[in-house]
Batch of 2 targets.
Target 1
Amino acid sequence: MKEKMGTTGLIFNEPLLWEKGSPGRTGISLPRRDVDEAPLDKALTGDGPDFPDLSELDVVRHFTKLSQWNFGVDSGMYPLGSCTMKYNPKTNERQASLPGFAGAHPLLPERLSQGLLALMHDLAAYLGEITGLPAVTLQPSAGSQGELTGMLIFSAYHKHTGKPRSKVLIPDTAHGTNPASAALCGFKPVAVKSGPDGILVPEAVAALMDDDTAGIMITNPNTLGLFESNIRQVADIVHGKGGLVYGDGANMNAIMGVVNVGDLGVDVLHLNLHKTFSTPHGGGGPGAGPVCVTPALAPFLPVPRVVKDGEVFRLDENYPLSVGKLHAFYGNVGILIRAYSYILSLGKCLKQVSQYAVLNANYIKQRLKGDYHLPFDRPCMHECVFTDKFQQEHHVATLDIAKRLMDHGFHPPTIYFPLVVSGAIMIEPTESESKETLDQFIDAMQQIAREAKACPDCLHESPQFPKVRRLDETLAARSPCLKG
Ligand SMILES: *Cc1c(COP(=O)(O)O)cnc(C)c1O
């Protein structure tokens, strides 16, 4: 690929809709009226809403131009990865919009919803097989709601054994939602410091694990993009004291088809269908965070559950130990259809998704590690974390690097996260990017590293080419101008 990604295309200016059109112009022709004209009661309507008067073409051009100001995963590399926006095959959107699915109503009787119930039943079985944790609920509508479900299950389990517990261990490399979910469920989160190589040290867990600790929540791979290779030992320590192990599987993109999570000693795991299993997620929802558990914890899963009686599928509410209902009806079903379609269309190749995601991240890590400081120099999973330590010598910070990437036609990666790494730049290329695109991204990052030495001010003034240049973020937060 000789052509460089660039941002110097034809980008139109566009005013507000209120500055377009002219009074009386309209985009639709109403049929001739067949009743007498009657004035609206002014007392009721006031002067009426201030709608602009526009033709159809005014509106089409307005929104088309605005859409061209945008950057999405369909326009270029988006190194925020599966965690925010990986490429989702379009066929899965298509399946979710099939009329039988799109038109289904949650109040339809079971006999008229057999297709959807079968889909949910089979999807739960697939997720059980992929994770190695066979009992599954599809109800939670986000990863964090899956975590809350898991904590409710922890709590119900310990109550059922007759010994309620009050604390949950959470490593410092866990996702921020983990301590929040534990606290929301009434547990006291207790931080576990990870070791110098960025992963959990079994002795640190053993020192904190006691009879009042309900268990541990482990994000694996953790937020540094590293596989928790001591997880089995940690799980044995926690189980030895009667605790349970929660796995945050939002990053399943890295280990699908490769790791059996049940074999790692995890008792409860959530997945983010809107990260790993083909639902666009950048806009903030909706999502689905199914929870998979061991057979021993199945009685505590939420209701209703889809069960199969002979050839007929039905919903069953009759589980006395269940933590109850978490969502209206059965969850965000449209997301479940996309995941089902994704899994069926890939079949055994699901494993390759993870292998390519990990390969791509390690390729970037190896090629950039001379140019950017790599705090944990070891094989990574689906994402790698650099810092701005080398560039700080020239007073160039992570934010400057991220902004400059926009001039090269790339969406900036996740920055200043994870919090345990100062000035973090977290790059997640995903499985879908080709080597050519990765090379272009690496070239851009290397060029920025050279520029940081040669012309730090150029970076402070970036981005130069996009429609909107660098924003005053403090001003934008303190006094946002919402009128354009
Ligand atoms: C995204 C994410 C979550 C939270 O998922 P939501 O669907 O955003 O609530 C939890 N843990 C990890 C590791 C994540 O990446």
Target 2
Amino acid sequence: MDKEGKLFNIAKRYLVGGVDSPVRSFNYVGIKPLMIKAGKGARIYDYGNHKYIDYVLSWGVAILGHAHPQVIKSIQQKLDSGISFGTTNETEIELAKEIAQAIPLIKKIRFVSSGTEAVMGAVRLARAYTGRDKIIKFSHSYHGHADYLLAQAGSGLATLQIPSSAGVPKDFIKHTTVVPYSDIGALEEIFKQNNGQIAAVLVEPIGGNYGVLPPDLAFLKKIRILTKKHNTLVIFDEVITGFRFRYGVVCQNFGITPDLICLGKIIGGGLPIGAYGGSEKIMNNLAPVGKVYQASTFSGNPIVMQAGLSTLKIIKKQKDNYQKITDLNKYLCVNLKKIAQTYAVSLELIYYGSMFSFKFQAREQFVKFYRLMFENGIFFAPSEFESNFLSFAHTKNDIENTLSAARKAFKIMEK
Ligand SMILES: *Cc1c(COP(=O)(O)O)cnc(C)c1O
């Protein structure tokens, strides 16, 4: 048995299903999970030293590609001063300032250690601020794994084809209403039925957890109008989209101003992070200034803050790369579709900026395509319900290699 196989057998003995997060099982595509030993730029390497072009990028985190030398060096230097103190530190202040400058709406920010915690904090704050309990979220959105947000959630759950999670009491989701995305009528109806009771509307401005869901601007604007009218807060979950499409958040492109913004993924430079922020008036309801409790042992950890700060500073200097990867992504998607057509395979690519996802006629086709690409050194997200990403490290050559692999794959699928 190869090294990967041996490792996975041991993993299964000690970790549930051999993994720490369901999508990592590769169950959807029916292959043994990839275990990544190392990464550099747009490349990753497994324990058998096979090389892959990486379109997963730690689920959208690694926008600079893996192991950017300046980021690594800054973390290494920081480590010499110690790892965790559980008090405020200078790097934390700098990162807060950097984010506030990039996103003027964020006057005050609170760092946490995951996107899940960021959303939990923002929702708690919105409830306290409005004095209301009810929240609205949209179908096929994902906002982390808090109990009350696991009502008809996205990717991981959709992959496992269960509507919600076991272990979540019905009582815990009774204040959560799930509305179909883009359905203005349904949203208006919910507001009418719950007049004066809705604390917040929680939305991913671009969906990233049920494949890519491009923004419906008219709908997002309608959300803002309705919430203003009803004194309900809007929380934009930009955990994936923050710093993915521009130096800041995507709502800045849309001219829509949410009340609270959740961040995560990219802003930690590869280390665990989450953050939420907004106006002083709202944020000052958090303890120690206000009455909303939210704490964490590791929040603002200096190593994490350093990784995030170094990453943002590099991105800021390379802003042109946002356009570069948008163009590369479009080139990839348009040509993947063309090649599929040549071999009579029906495929749609859904893409926005540097994100894309696949839509085949049938699951079996995706699985077949996935495995063939994987064997040829292309690592896509192992489910149609996950998004794929490009990083600043991806080159035209990587895209051409991916298209060559796709040509081979579709040729086999045509037979
Ligand atoms: C990843 C993600 C989360 C959860 O973040 P974690 O760091 O995994 O807890 C929340 N919302 C969105 C939109 C995400 O993509």
